[in-house]
Amino acid sequence: MCYNVVVETISCEEVIIMSTIRDVSKLAGVSVATISRYLNQSGYVSKEAEETILAAIQKLNYKPNNIARSLAGKRTATIALLVPDILNPFFPEIARAAEDVASRLGYTLILCNTDYNPDKERNYIDVLINKRIDGIIISSYTIRPEQIYALEAENIPVVVIDNAWEDTPIVSITSANRTGGQMAAQHLLDSGCQKIAHICGPYHITAAKNRMLGYEDVCKQQEWFTPSLMVYGDFSVSGGYSAMRELYAKHPDIEGVFAGNDLMAAGAMKALHEFSVRIPDQVKVIGYDGIHMDMFYPELSTIAQPIYSIGERAMMYLDQMIKEHPLEKKNYLIDVQLIVNASSRSL
């Protein structure tokens, strides 16, 4: 059997000499053990020594061998972000924030899009375990606490965003969804709406359910309230469009619509335009999330989540867990803000 062998020659000038940890140790004038503690953040290093080591690393352009460190049981400086739908504008902003902080802290971020598919999600998690990932930020509406406990048993810390479970020792970050639902419904009432509908997100999603409960807190006591004013969508533009057509067929006298996210609000506005309904003159519309979308006309009122801040905080919490710094395992609730724009403004 023959093999074609290609031999490429290079000149001496093309050879890149890689610095080693011993080179850094010699230049910095400290022990290899001190360098190792500094790199792995696994023990005390004086401020003066840190500055000397950093200067030596920069001068030598030293790059730690992450593969060798992982084989030795150390960190690989890689983390993963699992999201259910990267086309939803909420998640790219989360990803941008997490990546900004990860880069600043010396991590490489791997983005995994699960398409709301639990099988795909499990496959990603298996691959990440095999790659000795340092930690995972997960936005999932199907993952169960038992799966997160299993990851932590593999020494892989997890931060969950946009989902939470009561009385579970899991680090999660959510916005104040029920409060936000109350704010949206109350704003429409205060704007003069006499009959308000709600386009809900999928009921199995905790955030969607809590936004719906917030709407009910405000509207259930009203004389005009009926359960048929609540119709489910799927957090997509098309879902909001279909739900709005269904609502308008049942209740052509509605004066306000609270959509469970901004994408469904966009679909609802499209349906209302097709019915020749003037926004906000005849029907006022408010969404939820505060995503940046130029397509809205009139400009959409919304309950804004601090999306970038959520991504930042998730990465900072994950870094604390990776470094085994103290962090209470609980749900961290983030405040939301009412943003009033043309779609619900009083005339």
UniProtKB/TrEMBL annotation:
Q: Which UniProt keywords apply?
A: DNA-binding, Transcription, Transcription regulation
Pfam families the UniProt entry points to? LacI (PF00356), Peripla_BP_1 (PF00532)
Name assigned to this protein: LacI family transcriptional regulator
Tell me the InterPro entries matching this sequence.
HTH_LacI (IPR000843), Lambda_DNA-bd_dom_sf (IPR010982), Peripla_BP/Lac1_sug-bd_dom (IPR001761), Peripla_BP_I (IPR028082)
Membrane-traversing stretches: none
- The protein's superkingdom reads Bacteria
Which residue numbers delimit the HTH lacI-type domain?
Answer: 19-73
State whether keyword Transferase applies: no
Instruction: Show the CDD domains listed in the entry.
Output: HTH_LacI, PBP1_LacI_sugar_binding-like
One GO molecular-function annotation for this sequence?
Answer: DNA-binding transcription factor activity
Q: Sorted alphabetically, which Gene3D superfamilies does this protein's record hold?
A: 3.40.50.2300, lambda repressor-like DNA-binding domains
Organism per entry: Paenibacillus albiflavus
